[in-house]
Amino acid sequence: MASWKQLEVHTEDQTPHKWSVPLSEDMFKRFFAPGSPIVHKIFGDGSLFSPLLFGKYFDPSDAFPLWEFESDVFLSNLRSSGKTSIDWFQTDDAYVLKADLSGVENNTLQFFVENGKIMEISGQWKPKGDQSKTKDWRSGNWWEHGYVRRLELPGDADWKDTEAYVSNDMIVEVRIPKSSLDSDNPPAPGKGILAKNSDRL
């Protein structure tokens, strides 16, 4: 049975020029083709961090309005071929994202909410070493060291109460309450609304 750990969702991040270098499609192809198995795992078909997750190329460092679309429609081809284990949906009281991040080191996984409008999930797959202690890896060619997925939050999202959990087998669940409903008892990870949809992954 999976055990869950709650991760901190940061709201203050003063990193200058973060995600200022875009990952173009040509650059991604040159980076991905000779990539290591870990690169293919993190950026490959069906991954939350893949630029091709949504059926056409989209830089994951650009914010995407995820909850404006139905996952059943966007991921139908990947699901039919068994290439993805991601789901997102909304209930009466929350927006939910669930993803299998096996292959990702959970000690580098971070969650940020930027200006109450964008949720960012990021981490490092390759340490930078000592070559640039003064420059954050997110300020340059970030894909050479880490990964990111930035998502636009819906207008009624109560982002201050965003909760993120990771299981011991690297299943991530993010729950963002809707501001129109006052709930003092959100369901625990793996239960309630999440359990009802667990068979969708």
Automatic annotation (TrEMBL):
| Any one Pfam family match given in the protein's UniProt record, by short name | HSP20
InterPro entries on file: A-crystallin/Hsp20_dom (IPR002068), HSP20-like_chaperone (IPR008978)
Q: Where is this region: Disordered?
A: 178-201
- Residue ranges annotated for the SHSP domain, each copy included: 77-198
What's the domain of life for this entry? Eukaryota
Q: Provide the family line.
A: Belongs to the small heat shock protein (HSP20) family.
Q: What is this protein called?
A: SHSP domain-containing protein
Which species does the entry assign this protein to? Answer: Salix suchowensis
